[in-house]
Write a structure and sequence with these properties.
Blueprint: E1 2-8, E2 11-16, E3 27-34, H1 38-45, E4 55-56, E5 61-68, E6 80-83, H2 93-96, E7 124-126, H3 129-132, E8 134-135, H4 142-146, H5 151-161, E9 169-173, H6 177-188, E10 193-197, H7 201-210, E11 214-216, H8 223-231, E12 236-241, H9 248-255, E13 256-264, E14 289-292, H10 299-310, E15 320-325, H11 330-339, E16 346-350
Parallel strand pairs: 9-10, 9-12, 10-11, 12-13, 13-14, 15-16
Antiparallel strand pairs: 1-2, 1-4, 3-5, 3-7, 3-16, 5-6, 6-8
Helix pairs in contact: 5-6, 6-7, 8-9
Length: 351
């Protein structure tokens, strides 16, 4: 089969590989729609998870089941399915502890384009199919369904980990597609005021669509000063970090009130340490929690999030700014995510 791969650090290209084989619990799927992610960019051009050779990229997509293993109960060839970016080992002890993302090791639930070939191929393998695939509702197009793989669950995970409550004031730092879904998730959880930090006009427009009440443009000056001017007092209740780098945590500490929560969902591709200012953290005693979480994968999460689209609570179409038809456009779509033109949020490739 043909696939689009990371050939090595800073190198991508097409490769030919043997088709994957399904075990008794697994499935083989062909893609119907795929979307490249900024994580692919961190992986290839920043070497965030180390060097990889001929590793097929991609972890966002909707597909059609081609084959299922002998023990798969709930899916059959021909089913259209949502493929989560995170496909845990559900029998692992870590999964039973509630951290399936780290089943059998740190971040090991993230398999596609990390420890095994991803979705940018003519066929791909899904482990534990009954637990890691969800049927695509007929009301949702494959293109929309790709946003359920990673963008929606990651953004919403940021809002969930921040424990947003009715009436909270929330700052979302970074309003790319994940940050936009963090805005949407915060809004659905009842945040009264959402300060969205970003600069690209298209992202600002869509952030307002999803519920942002204030826009903070880092090009207009220090975001800490801007946010303090807007909210005054002790600061914001919650911060979701969906962009930036290791230095962004220092800004988050400076804008949050004592007792607040900082929820990171940003893939930190570079840097050795995260900076937490001692005084801003109350000398270590400010009751400010910092949590970083990989989105939960699995079937249940995909099914529940799909309900939000099916019943009109969430519209992901504004995220899909660039559409391509044909598998051959995979490289073009990926390089768009690398170059990030001003009008880009997410590209999607219909296969």
């Amino acid at each position: 089969m043909k696939g689009f791969a990371m050939l090595g650090l800073n190198k991508v290209g097409w490769v030919e590989k043997e088709c994957p084989v399904a075990g008794p619990l697994d499935a083989i799927v062909r893609p119907l729609a795929i979307s490249p992610c900024t994580s692919d960019i961190h992986t290839v051009w920043e070497g965030a998870i180390g060097d990889r050779h001929n590793l097929i990229l991609g972890h966002e997509g909707v597909g059609e089941v081609v084959e299922v293993g002998s023990l798969v109960k709930d899916f059959k060839p021909g089913d259209k399915v949502i493929i989560p970016a995170i496909t845990p080992d559900w029998q692992a002890v870590a999964s039973q502890r509630g951290f399936s993302q780290h089943s059998n090791g740190m971040l090991n639930g993230w398999k596609f384009s990390n420890s095994k070939d991803g979705l940018m191929a003519e066929f791909f393998h899904v482990n534990e199919a009954d637990g890691n695939m969800a049927l695509l509702p007929k009301e949702i197009s494959p293109e929309e369904g790709t946003m359920l793989s990673d963008m929606v669950p990651t953004g919403f995970h940021g809002a969930n980990n921040a424990e947003i409550e009715y009436g909270d004031t929330v700052a979302v730092i970074g309003i790319g597609p994940v940050g936009l879904m963090a805005v949407a998730g915060s809004n659905l959880r009842g945040a009264a005021r959402i300060l969205a930090v970003g600069s690209r006009p298209k992202c600002i427009e869509v952030a307002k669509f999803y519920g942002a009440t204030d826009i903070v443009n880092y090009k207009d000056g220090d975001i800490v000063e801007q946010i303090k001017d807007l909210v005054g007092g002790e600061g914001v209740d919650k911060v979701i970090i969906a962009g930036g780098n290791v230095d962004t945590f220092e800004q988050a500490i400076k804008i949050i009130r004592p007792g607040g929560i900082i929820s990171n969902i940003n893939y930190l591709g570079t840097g050795d340490y995260i900076k937490i200012p001692r005084v801003g953290w109350g000398l270590g005693m400010g009751h400010i929690r910092v949590i970083g979480g990989l989105m939960p994968g699995g079937r249940k999460n995909m099914e529940y999030l799909a309900r939000l689209i099916k019943y009109g609570k969430l519209d992901v179409k504004p995220l899909l700014t660039h559409r391509f038809k044909g598998f051959e456009h995979t490289e073009e779509a990926l390089l768009l995510m690398k170059d990030k033109p001003r009008d880009l949020i997410k590209p999607v490739v219909t296969v």
